[in-house]
Every structure is written in C-alpha cells, then in structure tokens.
Write a structure and sequence with these properties.
Length: 209
C-alpha cells in the first residue's frame, strides 16, 4: 500500500523516535496531493509540532481494524500551505509493511474464555489463542460489529489457582481476519486490565522457561 492511498478523514499515528525517546501523536488525513499526504496540523499543548529535525525518525502507522497495522518508515513531514490553509505534508519513500505492534513476548494459551459485547445480553464463548501484557488474540464464532470493536470485555480463568480466579480485561480490536473454517480471529490491544493479569502472564512466562 502506498501512503498516497490513504483517504480523507482517516486517522494515522505518527511515531517519532529520537535516541531513546519515543512519542506517538495522532493525525487526521486532510487530503492527498500526488504522493504527498496532507494532514491536519498536528499540535501539542496548543503549539504546532515541528518535524523538520533530520535526527528524528518518523514512522507512520495506519490501523483499519481489518488487518494487521500498516507502517511506513523513514517518513518526512514538512509544513505546507495549500489554497491558503496550512497542513503538515507527509511523504514516505517506500510502500507500507504489515506490522504486529505487540512487540513484547506473548504466551500461547488456546483456552476458553468469555466475551461480553455491550449490545448483546449473552456472553460469547471464545478461544483465547495468545496473550501478553498489552495484547490478546481471540477467536470468536460471531462477527463483532464495527461499533463494538473498541469496547470488548473478556474474562477467563486462571487455571493455576485452586479457586480458579477470574481474570478480566477490556480490549480494543486492532485487526481482524475471517477464518476459512468459520468464525473470526481478532488481534486486540488491551485498554484496561485488573492487576492479576500481570501476575498471570509473568507466572506463565516463568514456567515456560
């Protein structure tokens, strides 16, 4: 995918890296001119952000909820005036690559869990494929509608506890895939979780070593 294929109104994440500093900012596509994407001016604390420093690495990430996120590396962003309005003009030298933003170690579970969707009275029985401290992969027999992608409530049991302590978390879908054997796979980012999730993941990883 070329960066010029982005559409007006779509949102992207601009990731800026300088030595050990990493900052993510959100931006909205205002339009495309040739191979340059015009972004609504990006501000931080009321000030327009200056991306002109050559020592800053810029990565642009786009998530559509349909597939793994797409990323463009070595981007450049400059101020540009078009028809009297100022924008941040974004350019990328290469096509996007698909990325998995879950960069920390994960554990494979393939265990049952329950999914609560806000507009459905009954819990959905799901399979939790894998898990880490900031992401989870689940298989659902039903399709999750677009309006529910950002508010999923998941619960599973810590089978290592004598009383099978429940672990609850809130997740947001980052990408999804329809499975040929039926059902849907969802890769999610964790939005909120109880403290026992961290202990559960740490214990599982310790036992796997």
């Amino acid at each position: 995918m070329k960066i010029s294929e982005l559409k007006k109104g779509q949102k992207v994440t601009i990731r800026c890296k300088h030595k050990t500093l990493l900052v993510d900012v959100k931006a909205v596509v205002a339009g495309v001119r040739s191979d340059v994407v015009l972004l609504e001016l990006i501000r931080h604390e009321g000030q327009v952000v200056d991306f002109s420093s050559p020592s800053v690495q810029i990565i642009t990430i786009y998530e559509d909820g349909l597939d793994m996120p797409k990323a463009w590396t070595n981007c450049r962003i400059q101020r540009r005036t078009v028809e009297g309005r100022q924008y941040h003009a974004l350019a990328a030298p290469k096509n996007s690559v698909r990325v998995n933003r879950r960069k920390v170690s994960r554990i494979v579970l393939d265990m049952p869990g329950k999914l609560k969707i806000s507009n459905q009275p009954e819990d959905v029985e799901i399979i939790i494929h894998d898990l880490c401290v900031n992401g989870i992969g689940i298989q659902s027999p039903v399709k999750i509608e677009e309006q529910d992608l950002r508010h999923l409530y998941i619960q599973f049991m810590d089978e290592d506890k004598d009383d099978e302590e429940p672990i609850k978390l809130e997740a947001r879908v980052v990408w999804k895939k329809e499975l040929p054997q039926g059902g849907f796979y969802y890769g999610c980012r964790l939005a909120n979780a109880e403290e026992n999730l961290g202990y559960y993941v740490a214990n599982k990883m310790r036992n796997a070593q």
